[in-house]
């Protein structure tokens, strides 16, 4: 167990070196949510702490899911996956490694909107809850990214298209631009099915002290989503790995 | 001799197509075991099953006593693998690739550093240790991949087409290294298309065709199986019509082999006399004349054609 955990860390280190420590990846991770966010809030009369909370949840969401979907297809294409599959590591270990790298990246980049917010006078009212929420969300969204990477293809564009088709609708039903309480009833029901809803709610609570669900509900929902995503990802990768080789 | 690889009734089906069909064999400690077969015969599928990369449909594989189904991590821990089409990580340096392998196999840090230095020196890659693999030539990459497979000092080494596409010098170095590793006590499971390589390196070979084992034996013993057939190889100073030579008595078949003609015969002495007469009567000069005994390639072709 400890051995497999150490090996997962080695895989995470490899992923960070190969996929994350690239200027364009880091810059894209910061700029993409910022521009998307600005496109939807400019011209609307919203408070800064509301904006920063939404921007932060979107940043964790996009950065934690930015690279995980493409690792397996890329390694299929570069033919390094078979070597990994022949090593004394389980599929769970490989996925755990990919997820850990993504979690670190997600957490690291999420510090940027927090610092921007603090620089313009926003205060974090509940820093520990915010930190715990960011970590939980990073695990949850990274595991979600692993589901997309299970598509048995070597074409990263295919995977990116599928993940984009899922990611964007989630942004609009998760209370980022319109608080969940102000959504129509069908919107509120849909919001329940999005993990992004719960981290957005946690961020709002951490910055503004207001929340739609209780903190316990938000944290539990994120944990449940994480367990579901990880279980599904392990099963799907178990099936797709032989098809990739 | 201790059996280190035990394969029993191994089968792999892909949507109704049987890639590996109830094969059974054993590999003993210290052997270089060759696994030969035409394209699509099931070689790579077998190697992938033996190295735990894919699961068989049925059958049993045991590596050093570890059942590959129930103890795959333990089995993988004691083997080294050079997959057929695998690559090192191009974006990492040679050094980082080796260290990553060490981490994956749980090699302690200090030992991993010493081992990496030793392997890089052995494969003449030490000067390029900090260079990204994407800057390496194919030969250098293949040497690095072999070095990566040795980081955990494996008991058994699986090499799937290790010299495929390499220049003569790189291929020679890999072959010398295989012999040296075997001399050092490692068991080698070698898949190759090159018959000469198998003949040169392997103590035993298995020939697989259409997913089934056609023969398993020492190369020389396999050659004896078709010892009744011999041939004469001849080259003239000018091109000749091969069909003329088919009319010579005792000649069963004539095949072109580069600028040479290969005459399959059951009377090689008589065929030589007839070739000399043929050259005289056609005012040709014999550039080369040779009698040959079956090679491993001939055995391979005969067995794969017979059972095809």
UniProtKB/TrEMBL annotation, chain A:
The chain crosses the membrane at residues 21-44, 50-72, 84-116, 128-149, 170-192, 212-234. Keywords: Membrane, Transmembrane, Transmembrane helix. It is a multi-pass membrane protein. One of its GO terms (molecular function) is ABC-type transporter activity. This is ABC-2 type transport system permease protein. Its main location: membrane. GO terms for cellular component: ATP-binding cassette (ABC) transporter complex. It is found in: Membrane. PROSITE patterns: ABC_TM2. Residues 15-240 form the ABC transmembrane type-2 domain. It holds the Pfam family ABC2_membrane. InterPro entries: ABC2_TM (IPR013525), ABC2_TM_bact-type (IPR047817), ABC_2_transport (IPR000412), Nod_factor_ABC_transporter (IPR051784).
Automatic annotation (TrEMBL), chain B:
It is a peripheral membrane protein. NCBIfam families: drrA. Pfam families: ABC_tran (PF00005), DrrA1-3_C (PF13732). Belongs to the ABC transporter superfamily. Drug exporter-1 (DrugE1) (TC 3.A.1.105) family. This is ABC-2 type transport system ATP-binding protein. Keywords: ATP-binding, Cell membrane, Membrane, Nucleotide-binding, Translocase, Transport. One of its GO terms (biological process) is doxorubicin transport. Gene3D superfamilies: P-loop containing nucleotide triphosphate hydrolases. Residues 5-235 form the ABC transporter domain. InterPro entries: AAA+_ATPase, ABC_transporter-like_ATP-bd, ABC_transporter-like_CS, ABC_transporter_ATP-binding, DrrA, DrrA1/2-like_C, P-loop_NTPase. The keyword Cell inner membrane does not apply. Its main location: membrane. One of its GO terms (molecular function) is ATP binding. It is found in: Cell membrane. GO terms for cellular component: plasma membrane. It comes from Candidatus Argoarchaeum ethanivorans. SUPFAM superfamilies: P-loop containing nucleoside triphosphate hydrolases.
């Amino acid at each position: 167990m400890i051995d497999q955990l150490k090996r997962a860390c080695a895989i995470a280190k490899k992923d960070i070196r190969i996929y994350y420590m690239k200027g364009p990846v880091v810059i894209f991770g910061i700029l993409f949510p910022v521009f998307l966010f600005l496109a939807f809030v400019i011209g609307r009369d919203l408070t800064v702490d509301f904006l920063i909370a939404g921007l932060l949840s979107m940043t964790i969401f996009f950065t934690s899911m930015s690279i995980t979907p493409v690792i397996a297809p890329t390694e299929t294409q570069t033919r390094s996956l078979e070597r990994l599959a022949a090593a004394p590591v389980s599929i769970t270990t490989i996925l755990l490694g990919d997820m850990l790298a993504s979690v670190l990246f997600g957490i690291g980049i999420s510090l940027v909107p927090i610092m921007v917010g603090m620089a313009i006078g926003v205060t974090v009212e509940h820093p520990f809850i915010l930190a715990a929420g960011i970590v939980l969300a990073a695990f949850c969204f990274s595991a979600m990214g692993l589901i997309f990477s299970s598509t048995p293809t070597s074409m990263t564009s295919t995977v990116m298209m599928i993940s984009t088709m899922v990611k964007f609708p989630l942004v609009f039903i998760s209370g980022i631009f319109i608080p969940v309480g102000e959504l129509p009833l069908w919107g509120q029901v849909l919001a329940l099915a999005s993990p992004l809803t719960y981290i957005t709610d946690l961020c709002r609570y951490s910055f503004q002290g207001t929340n739609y669900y209780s903190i316990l509900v938000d944290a539990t929902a994120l944990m449940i989503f994480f367990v579901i995503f990880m279980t599904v990802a392990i099963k799907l990768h178990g099936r797709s790995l032989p098809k990739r080789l | 001799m201790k059996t280190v690889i035990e394969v029993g009734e191994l089968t792999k089906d892909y949507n109704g197509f049987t890639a590996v069909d109830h094969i059974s064999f054993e590999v003993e400690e210290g052997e270089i075991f060759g696994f030969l077969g035409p394209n699509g015969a099931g070689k790579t599928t077998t190697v992938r099953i033996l190295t735990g990369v894919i699961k068989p449909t049925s059958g049993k594989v045991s590596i050093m006593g570890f059942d590959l189904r129930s103890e795959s991590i333990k089995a993988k821990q004691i083997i080294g693998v050079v997959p057929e089409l695998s690559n090192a990580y191009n974006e990492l340096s040679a050094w980082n690739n080796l260290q990553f392998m060490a981490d994956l196999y749980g090699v302690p840090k200090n030992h991993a550093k010493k081992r990496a230095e030793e392997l890089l020196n052995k494969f003449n890659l030490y000067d390029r240790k900090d260079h990204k693999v994407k800057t390496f030539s194919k030969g250098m990459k293949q040497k690095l991949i072999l070095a990566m497979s040795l980081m955990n000092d494996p008991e058994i080494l699986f090499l799937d087409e290790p010299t495929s596409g390499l220049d003569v010098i790189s291929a020679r170095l890999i072959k010398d290294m295989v012999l040296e590793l075997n001399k050092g006590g490692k068991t080698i499971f070698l898949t190759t298309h090159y018959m000469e390589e198998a003949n040169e390196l392997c103590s035993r070979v298995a020939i697989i065709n259409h997913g089934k084992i056609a023969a398993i034996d020492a190369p020389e013993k396999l050659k004896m199986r078709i010892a009744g057939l011999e041939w004469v190889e001849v080259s003239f100073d000018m091109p000749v019509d091969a069909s003329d030579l088919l009319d010579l008595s005792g000649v069963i078949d004539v095949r072109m082999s580069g600028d040479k003609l290969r005459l399959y015969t059951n009377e090689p002495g008589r065929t030589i006399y007839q070739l000399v007469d043929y050259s005289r009567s056609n005012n040709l000069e014999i550039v080369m004349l040779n009698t040959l005994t079956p090679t491993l390639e001939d055995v391979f072709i005969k067995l794969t054609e017979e059972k095809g």
